[in-house]
Amino acid sequence: MGEIGIKDCMVFDEVAKIKFINADEMMGKLKDYMESSHFERGPKKTTSTCSLVFMGNVDVKGFIPVEDFTYILPEFMRDSAFVDRINGIIPGWKLPKIKKPELHLSQNYGFSTDYFSEILHELRKIDFQTELKSIVDLENVTIKDYKSVYRLLSGMMKILFPHKKWQKMELEEILTFCIGYRELVCEWLHKMAPGEFERKKITYRILL
Q: A Pfam family in this protein (predicted)?
């Protein structure tokens, strides 16, 4: 089945350096998977819930990107259909650099990575989206925006509130982050194809 068939998440570090032998064919398969969760392995077609993460470096000035995200990608990935399938962008440029160990590394107890990974693995089996969709109403969204925001929101709420007990203010704060991550994708799409993708502001109502 390959890595996608058995893993929970695959991270592509230094996305600018990714190379495929048959780039057009591979991008077609990648876009199909990101859209439908289906992929082919030889003559067989199957599904997976494996998440994909693409990491890259962007030039910033004063915590503001000064480089078009498009040029972080290898040329064969510079496709609006591919970018639209990305759920959100985590603005890593806003995170402080790790410097002195005494400042940025904990001196206290913490989870070992294999233990924490197992927690995340088990959380994937729990459905949060059904409940969140019943109490959060998104407005001014496309189908891809809709799916992306709820995926991001579900993931963050699972980590922060695995017991499913939260206050409206807490939900709204996390939702704002998730919408912001998706809006970075929307802004990127507008720059790539302004005639097809308008600038937008995703709005919402919390039904609590």
A: BrxL_ATPase
